Amino acid sequence: MTDILVLAILIDIVFGELPNKIHPVAIIGKLISIYENFLHNFKNKFLGGFLLFISTHFTIFIVIFLLLKIIKSNYLLFALKVFIVYSSISVKGMLDHALKIYQALSMDINLAKENLKLIVSRDVEEMNEQDIIKSTIESVAENFNDAFFAPIFYGVIFGIYGIIFYRITNTLDAMVGYKNEKYIEFGKFSAKSDDILNFIPARLQIIVMLPVAQILFKNGLNALKIYKKFRNTLPSPNAGCGISLFAGALNITLGGNTYYFGRLVNKPLIEGGSDLLTKQKILDAIFLYLYSAIFTVLLIIIFKLLWSPNVPFTL
């Protein structure tokens, strides 16, 4: 499994994500929408949301199980598994989004807002440049775990089905896990399941983040200090981990009150340092994400070599 993980990560870093029209996560999203159209009509919204969770996982697992059973060629099986992992993570795709925001800030703040809307659910219309920079870095920080580290974590432990289960759950949370009138009950099971799945990897990402922060910015110790102080201060049980690490590593203040769907959400400040929120900090966040992903690959390779010292490492 380590060979599959490493190859899939390298493919993603080099080539980025598939087009949205054919991306498996987008297909999962369409399946969720189909089930939601029916199940959201249940009088008991929580039950409907629970059935959405079960139905989506069951359908995808059956399809993957049958594919893995039907394919007899070991080469095709290997390729399919690499494809599943590759389509379940995002390094280059996420960082390309952040880079577009960085570039747009030099030309047109409204274009930067439009690009930001693609990666956040918060209201962007009234944001100034610093708000955009902060929101971009926070999105990068949260997505390191959600879009990369957590699926890899479950792949290492549970293999292909671990990654699939995580990615479906995370997609469900992204689509129905909102605390608004429509989804507060319907999306509760998906949201809580996502919180549970992310609890351990959100805290383990410190293993790769601190060494990289020290190498890039000489701020590993500050990242650790800010992580200890602020990791549990945000409303989300896991978001504070990544955001506090990035705040400490980049020596900036993140968090603070934010508008979602026209409603002000009070969030505490994560005071990672006194540096100004300049555009350069977006680039710093991109490098922290990228090199932490590369360091994760190196750790997986080391794990492979130490775990199976008598087996040649081949991709």
Number of domains: 1
The shape is globular
Q: What string, H for helix and E for strand, traces the elements in order?
A: HHHHHHHHHHHHEEEEH
Sheet with the most strands: spatial strand order: 1-4
Q: Largest sheet, described in full?
A: 2 strands, antiparallel
The value of Rg in angstroms is 20 Å
Question: Terminal Cα separation, in Å?
Answer: 10 Å
Sheet-strand content, in percent, reads under 5%
- Poorly predicted runs of 5 or more residues: 310-315
Mean pLDDT: 92
**Number of beta-strand segments:** 4
Q: What is the number of helices?
A: 13
Quickly give the structural class: mainly alpha
Secondary structure: helix percent: 55-70%
Describe the structure.
The protein has 315 residues and is mainly alpha-helical. It has 13 helices and four strands. A hairpin with a 2-residue loop joins strand 2 and strand 3.
In short:
With 315 residues, the protein is mostly helical. 69% of the residues lie in helices and 4% in strands.
Question: What keyword list fits this structure?
Answer:
4% strand; Cobalamin biosynthesis protein CobD; globular; 315 residues; 13 helices; disordered C terminus; Cobalamin_biosynth_CobD/CbiB
Give the secondary structure arrangement, pairings included.
Layout: H1 2-15, H2 24-39, H3 45-70, H4 74-86, H5 92-104, H6 109-116, H7 129-158, H8 160-176, H9 188-204, H10 206-217, H11 220-230, H12 239-250, E1 253-255, E2 258-260, E3 263-265, E4 269-271, H13 279-307
Antiparallel strand pairs: 1-4, 2-3
Membrane topology: Multi-pass membrane protein
Pathway: Cofactor biosynthesis; adenosylcobalamin biosynthesis
Protein name: Cobalamin biosynthesis protein CobD
